[in-house]
Amino acid sequence: MTTTTTTKPSFQTLTSPFKHNPPQLPLKLSRKPSKILCSQSPDHNSQQSPPKFVSLVSIIRSIPDWADGIKERRMKQRRPLYKHHDWVRHRSSVRHLRHLLSSFNSRVILSLVPPVIAFTSVAAVVASYNTAVVWHLLPEVFPVLRASSLPYQLTAPALALLLVFRTEASYSRFEEGRKAWGRVVSGTNDFARQVMVSVETDCLVKTALLQYIMAFPVALKCHLVNESDIGRELQDLLEDDDLAILLSSNHHPRCIIQFISQSMKLLELEETKRTVLESKVTCLHEGIGVCEQIVGIPIPLSYTRLTSRFLVLWHLTLPIILWDDCNWIVVPATFVSAASLFCIEEVGVLIEEPFQMLSLDELCIRVCENVQEAMKREKEIRETLIMKKEAASRGPSLNGHLTSGDEQKSRANSSSSSSR
User: Fold this and answer.
1) Sorted alphabetically, which keywords does the UniProt record give (predicted)?
2) What gap in Å lies between CA 419 and CA 410, rounded to an integer?
3) Do residues 193 and 296 make contact, with C-beta atoms less than 8 angstroms apart?
């Protein structure tokens, strides 16, 4: 009998914040399956694996799973910020043709494949049944499925208002999320500017504080967007020991704020400047609260369920209502109605979670570029302003800019000669 021993890594290796070693966790997890494989033979494993059966439920679920997979993959795609050429293309007169040709690549349309196919199939079954009854292919006890269109005429405005209100409520959440993230971006830029202006000494702490400020939008984005790799996105902004502490925390944006607060304590600042910087930290806290409320609290579920049930019942009975007027045209009519109304409802569901639809990656990159550019230009701008301040006592130039003493003497001599 063979015994296997597992060597535990030291406590310092797992908890030390000064050395970040991500591969330790997968290595530790991979030892347990290897121990199990040593005690079992391949024949035993093949006998224990259950056979795979293709059931009717799995066949029916294959199309919705395929549509959901495409939709979720498209939701994770990176969305760029619009530039001038994007707006020109956006308002182009050929946009309608471009949108029509790209219909089969739209995640909204592909996600509607299951319900549209289902209701179109129901319409085809109803049309086939009524045709069989009319042609006396079935016994006379089977009636023709028909009904008055008056109930649909009365409930159509209610369905339209319900879809409009549902989409409007979702767009209001999208707008609120966009504004909240805009406040986070502007607050981060203003915070970095205040640090550059207020802190004149402690260059190391100042640089670290600016790095934490640049890391905050990235941490908040990874906190809001599912399946984000915060370690990979922050490895160029933070040091290894800081990143190790951040990854061990449960709430990454608040951990970044703790880094910012502790860094501000190490700075020797006046009380007024410290108060201004503390107010910027408060703005970051408010941004976290607003974004978490948007993600955690959806539109009331009863409202969403009512819209879905109304649409389903509407399209299940639509072929019966339209049979007398349309006959077999109920099949394409149901297809068009389901594709149109469910598309409106699907758009409302997609924009209900706004942070998946916003260009958060590009906004974070822009914040980092703006702060880094300001850090590079800070010394150059300060030296230029000091030179202008020294030349201020010599008088302004004719166009309002400060000039040197030699230029002023030459202009004085020229003015005196012209007066003579």
Assistant:
1) Ion transport, Membrane, Transmembrane, Transmembrane helix, Transport
2) 14
3) no
| Domain carrying residue 274 | 180-297+363-384
* Residue 264 within a domain: yes
DSSP string of 26-40?
HHHHTHHHHHHHHTS
Q: What is the largest CA-CA distance in the chain?
A: 123
Rounded distance, CA 285 to CA 254, Å? 8
Dig out the tokens for 6 from the structure.
């597992």
- What is the pLDDT tens value at each position of the chain, 420 positions in all? 444 444 434 333 333 333 344 433 333 333 333 333 333 444 444 445 554 455 767 767 777 777 777 777 777 777 888 899 999 999 999 999 998 888 888 888 888 888 999 999 999 999 999 999 999 888 888 999 998 888 888 889 999 999 999 999 999 999 999 999 999 999 999 999 999 988 877 688 899 999 999 999 999 999 999 888 999 999 988 999 999 999 999 999 999 999 999 999 888 888 888 899 999 999 999 999 999 999 999 999 999 999 999 999 999 999 999 998 888 999 999 999 999 999 999 999 999 999 988 999 999 999 999 999 988 888 888 888 888 888 876 765 545 554 544 554 555 555 555 554
Chain mean position to CA 349: 14
Query: Do residues 171 and 349 make contact, with C-beta atoms less than 8 angstroms apart?
Result: no
User: Two tokens at 189?
Assistant: 């830029």
The strand pairing partners of 402, in sequence order, are: 396
| Exposed e or buried b per residue across 363-385, where buried means at least 16 C-beta atoms within 10 angstroms of its C-beta | bbeebbebbeeebeeeeeeeeee
Under DSSP, is residue 402 helix (H, G, I), strand (E, B) or coil?
strand
Secondary structure (3-state) at 396 = strand
Classify residue 405: in a domain, yes or no: no
The verdict on residue 404 lying in a domain is no
* Phi-psi domain of 7 (left: phi exceeds 0; alpha: psi -120 through 50; beta: other): beta
Residue 308 located in a structural domain: no
How many angstroms separate the CA atoms of 298 and 315, rounded? Answer: 26
Tokens coding 224: 């809001």
- Give the up-direction half-sphere exposure of residue 122: CA atoms within 13 A in the CB hemisphere: 18
| Token couple for 214 | 């640049």
Q: By 3-state DSSP, what share of the chain in percent is helix, strand and coil, each rounded to 5?
A: 75, 0, 25
On whether the CB atoms of residues 35 and 4 are closer than 8 A, the answer is: yes
Q: How far is CA 114 from the centre of its chain?
A: 25
The structure's pTM equals: 0.74
